[in-house]
Amino acid sequence: MKNTRKYRWFYWAFMLGMMIIIFVLSHQPGTVSTKISDHVASTLQVESQEKYFYKAVSAQPLFAGLSLRKYAHLVLYGGLGLSTFLVTKDGRLSGKKKIWLAMAICFVYSCTDELHQYFIPGRGAKFIDIIIDAIGYSVVIGLGWLVLWIKRRKQ
User: Fold this and answer.
1) What is the 3-state secondary structure (H, E, C) of the chain?
2) Model-level pTM?
3) What is the mean pLDDT of residues 85-112?
4) For residues 118, 70, 89 and 4, what is the CA-based torsion angle, rounded to 10 degrees?
5) Burial category of 143 from C-beta neighbours within 10 Å (exposed 0-12, middle 13-18, buried 19 and up)
């Protein structure tokens, strides 16, 4: 426990950093966001020879019917899930309460992010994005809990 306490400031900075990154990306108008997504998609198209990558347009499916933007939701909220898990794992709450707290923080942030996007020109609030965000952070928080559980069982 002592070893992880000295990293607590880093965990908080990581969580706040993820929130800032998500906010900045969400705050871009639709045209700017589309240009960035298309650039990333075209880079993937050039560098990848896999059959799963289609035309370099960010709104088209890459794999499993999800677009590049939806994968960005998974990755960014996975990072937020990891950071909130690290922040909450050493608290005074019981194991399950720590997990639910981390999930609640991510859920509230996801909802407020979609509400924020509603007011950005060319963007909108989409319920499916909240679901995709939840998949991203739930998987990472669940894996974090599983790793800790396995470590404790071995001790």
Assistant:
1) CHHHHCCHHHHHHHHHHHHHHHHHHHCCCHHHHHHHHHHHHHHHHHHCCCCCCCCCCCCCEEECCEEHHHHHHHHHHHHHHHHHHHHHCCCCCCHHHHHHHHHHHHHHHHHHHHHHHHCCCCCCCCHHHHHHHHHHHHHHHHHHHHHHHHHHHHC
2) 0.81
3) 90
4) -110
5) middle
